């Protein structure tokens, strides 16, 4: 892991930009590395869960939906609000595996349904992909939990790398073949601007892919907000592409290998909640930069750790706790 951190530091020193992203990426790597040493009581995990249930209720009454959101809004955007609900739903269903009391199971499922309704109200489309995968996992969890660890390692690495190819196929090949206005999803066009951002990033980096060009990107996609002000999009809206553009392909590939190789500590339990939620996040990050943006890591990291700790609880390998 020291090689990955060294490469990231070298890249940062070359451009002296992207410090926020660097810190969040190092934190994500650290979660994988130190996970075997993480411990929290069952009450602690439930406490985190209840905090984010309350936070989801707060967002439902205060945060805008995708139809209401514009650049003048300074709070949570609909995609992040939807992601809070999705991760809390996953933690809720993970806790069901630990609970043996029927009333507790019923209450957790009821709260999950409520959170899903909140998620739908925000209208974030990328989180719905995660919801579908979450449902598939919990329906076929016995099969998924028997999948060899090596497969998850491959999937982690593959999704991170394929995300960059996906951005190219979407922004260059698919957009030129279909065009804007031909396909709609949840009332929105399939192409909402990301194709312009991603195409601009490929042109922006040019021949500097080895160690990137730092966090100075501005897209040609100009947005007019409700106040009539113009703003250039500067978010990559793709975790892997943004990572490679800022820090370079060499640090990015080292990071992807580190995540895959250090996932052993998260895959040795009876359930695979942590592994599955990471797969969901990596797929969701085809369209977002949630895993290195401070706008979302403050809620992703505690929920991610809590979900991982439910694996330890279910296996009863590190815990002696009372049932709910």
Explain this structure.
This protein is mainly α and 324 residues long. The chain contains 13 helices and 4 strands. The strands form 2 sheets. Strands 1-2 form a two-stranded antiparallel sheet. Strand 1 and strand 2 (188-189) form a beta hairpin. The protein is globular.
Compact overview of the structure:
This protein has helices at residues 2-15, 19-34, 42-62, 78-98, 102-122, 125-139, 141-144, 149-178, 194-205, 239-247, 249-261, 273-284, 294-315; strands at residues 184-185, 188-189, 222-224, 230-232. It has 324 residues and is mainly alpha-helical. 65% of the residues lie in helices and 3% in strands.
The outline comes out as: globular
How large is the share of residues in beta strands? under 5%
Number of strands: 4
| Biggest beta sheet attributes | 2 strands, antiparallel
Strand line-up across the major sheet: 1-2
**Which residues form runs of ≥5 with pLDDT under 50?**
224-232, 317-324
Structural class: mainly alpha
Provide the gyration radius in Å. Answer: 20 Å
Features:
two-stranded antiparallel sheet, 3% strand, 324 residues, disordered C terminus
Topology:
Elements (H helix, E strand, L loop, with lengths): L1 H14 L3 H16 L7 H21 L15 H21 L3 H21 L2 H15 L1 H4 L4 H30 L5 E2 L2 E2 L4 H12 L16 E3 L5 E3 L6 H9 L1 H13 L11 H12 L9 H22 L9
Antiparallel strand pairs: 1-2, 3-4
Helix pairs in contact: 1-11, 2-13, 3-4, 3-5, 3-13, 4-5, 4-6, 4-13, 6-12, 8-9, 8-11, 8-12, 10-11, 12-13
């Amino acid at each position: 892991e020291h090689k990955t951190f060294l490469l990231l530091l070298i890249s940062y020193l070359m451009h002296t930009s992207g410090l926020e992203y660097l810190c969040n990426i190092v934190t994500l790597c650290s979660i994988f590395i130190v996970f075997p040493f993480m411990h929290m009581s069952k009450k602690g995990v439930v406490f985190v869960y209840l905090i984010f249930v309350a936070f989801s209720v707060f967002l439902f009454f205060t945060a805008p939906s995708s139809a209401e959101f514009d650049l003048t809004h300074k709070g949570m955007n609909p995609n992040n609000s939807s992601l809070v609900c999705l991760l809390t739903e996953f933690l809720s269903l993970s806790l069901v595996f630990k609970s043996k009391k029927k009333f507790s199971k019923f209450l957790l499922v009821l709260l999950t349904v409520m959170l899903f309704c909140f998620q739908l109200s925000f209208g974030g489309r990328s989180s719905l992909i995660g919801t579908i995968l979450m449902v598939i996992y919990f329906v076929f969890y016995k099969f998924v939990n028997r999948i060899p660890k090596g497969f998850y390692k491959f999937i982690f690495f593959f999704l991170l790398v394929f995300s960059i190819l996906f951005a190219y196929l979407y922004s260059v090949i698919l957009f030129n073949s279909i065009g804007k206005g031909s396909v709609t999803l949840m009332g929105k066009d399939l192409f909402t601007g990301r194709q312009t951002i991603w195409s601009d990033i490929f042109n922006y980096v040019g021949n500097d892919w080895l160690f990137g060009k730092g966090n100075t990107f501005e897209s040609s996609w100009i947005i007019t907000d409700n106040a009539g002000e113009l703003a250039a999009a500067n978010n990559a809206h793709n975790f892997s592409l943004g990572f490679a553009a800022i820090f370079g392909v060499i640090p990015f590939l080292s990071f992807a290998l580190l995540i895959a190789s250090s996932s052993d500590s998260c895959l040795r339990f009876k359930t695979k909640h942590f592994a599955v939620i990471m797969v969901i996040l990596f797929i969701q990050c085809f369209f977002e930069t949630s895993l290195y943006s401070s706008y979302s890591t403050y809620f992703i990291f505690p929920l991610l750790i809590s979900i991982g700790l439910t694996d330890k609880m279910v296996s009863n390998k590190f815990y002696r706790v009372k049932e709910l």
